[in-house]
Amino acid sequence: MSDCRQRDPARSLRRRQLLLLACVVREHGGTWGIAQAAPATEGTKVWVNLPGDPAAAY
Description:
- This protein is an alpha+beta fold.
- The chain has one helix spanning 4-27, and strands at residues 31-36, 44-49.
- The chain is flat.
């Protein structure tokens, strides 16, 4: 995605998805973070820890 018109919508989508992730994790009392991706890949890696069985609430 070298074109600026393609990067901006992708960045906006990524921000909205991270906000949703943060809300879900906070609702369930978990933690999350961002780490560097493995050397063979690009970008970043997102990790999440949720206590217990959060799916049981649904």
